[in-house]
Hints:
Layout: H1 3-6, H2 19-26, E1 40-44, E2 47-51, H3 62-66, H4 70-80, H5 86-96, H6 105-112, H7 117-126, H8 136-147, H9 149-167, H10 177-193
Antiparallel strand pairs: 1-2
Helix pairs in contact: 2-4, 4-5, 7-10, 8-10
Amino acid sequence: MPHSDTxxxxxxxxxxxxxxxxxxxxxxxxxxxxxxxxxxxxxVLGRQLMIxxxxxxxxxxxxxxxxxxxxxxxxLHCLYSRHHDGRVRQRxxxxxxxxxxxxxxxxxxxxxxxxxVEILVVLRDSLRDxxxxxxxxxxxxxxFLVENPEFFARTQRRIVSYWSCxxxxxWSFRDFPGSTVLDxxxxxxxxxxxxxxxxxxxxxxxxxxxxx
Length: 212
C-alpha cells in the first residue's frame, strides 16, 4: 500500500495551515500492513478534522523522525497515538499529552475512551491541570469538549463501558483511572461552558446493564 493511501489526504487530520507539515510526516510513514480503520470527525475551532481510526503502519526509522521539525514530530506523535499497538499509542501519547495546541487535544481525548489501562494512567497523571482554573491545558480541552458534545458523550460512555466489562472486579468506578480522567474532562468542560457539564458516570459500584 503506498504512503498516500495510509492517511489520504493528510490535511484531513490537521488544520489546513499545517498541510505542508502533515505531508512531510506522511512521506516518512511506512506502507500500511492492512487498511486503516475509517476516520472519525471532530470539530476544532469551528473546522472539521478527520482523525484516523487505527493506523497499521510501522513506526518510521529514528533517522527519518529526527530530520523532522519539532512541529512535524508533534504531528507524527498524534498520528501514531492512533496505532493498533497499545504500547505504541502510549509511547506517542506521552510526547503530546501536555500540549495545549488545539489540534492535539482530540488525539489525547480519544485515548480516554479506549481499553488500555496503562494509557488511562498516563492521562490521569498528566492532565491534572485540567482542574486548575485558567490553565492553558484546561482551556484547550474544555473548548474542544464543549465544541464536540456528542463525541464527549460517547467518550464518557466508553470509559464507563470498559470499566463495567473488564475492570469491575478490580476497581470500584471511583478508583478506576478512567474515572479520574473523566472527572478532569468534566471539570474542563464545565469551566468552558459556564455550567455543570452532564456526566454519565455510574452512581453505584455494581455492573451496569447495557454496557457490555
